Amino acid sequence: MLGDGKQPGLFEEDTCQEPSPNQRGKSEASADRPRMPERSFIPVMDNAVYHDFRKTISDAKKFKHVEDSPFPTAPIEARHAHGVVQLRRSADQPLLSPEQEQILAEQEWERIKRVSAIESDITDILSAVWVKAAREARSVSVRAVIRVDELMRMRGIRPKRGGQGRRGGYSREQKLEHLRALSVIQDSWLNVRIFYEEESRKRPAAKVIQSRPFVVTDRMGQYLLNEDNYLDVEKIVFVPGEVFAVFLMGPRQTALLHSRALNYNPRTQLWEKRLSRYYSYLWRCRSHRGDYE
Question: If you write DSSP's letter for every residue of 31-53 in order, what string do you get?
């Protein structure tokens, strides 16, 4: 089942306990390995659709041309869920003419060429911030708030120091880079068929969900009057889309990810970044079975 109305995992803090010596094996138990402090970990959503989306949205090569849509499309092939993710701002505008849709699709193909590991980082940051807000409010309907500067801080980017007539903080180019990546996540459209079990049925039931991964409900900032009233976004308010929220009503909704995964440079340390996420996923799977070998 997708959920029974109970929330045994979301409102409980994840633990960072290492396996016991018997679970690790004698050779590993004898090694002198310091334990990571619990504050080094962040809670992220833990469902197959989330993991597959996070991996896909940062890889332009996964998006292909398909017959029934002009927009960039990538498959979602997760356990108990199958579907696609598209980059399309027009998903909420069904009355577009074919010509208008084609123009928008060409713009999306240009956008998908620029995706990078930053999109994966921001997906995890949005997840971690929302999970923390939900735990504090003890509610799955909470709206989370995050500042654009916080996106960069959590990725390990240090602000420039001010002084001697220079303004400190993050540069506009850095902010625009992260807002661009955020817009890719916001404009992604997931169309997923999710399979689940029901006691009254012998075969798994299925439901189709079409939604954004995260929905930005509000933006706050200041207008720059010298740049045609451009809104300099300072913070956003957001909620998870239904395609992620549907999994929050069952057990094991979250996993722990080491914050260092967000700090690795996506250009020079891409494999370290990917391995950090893989080990987080592997640790969660094995902790459920109690098997760490």
Answer: S--PPPPGGGEEEEE--HHHHHH
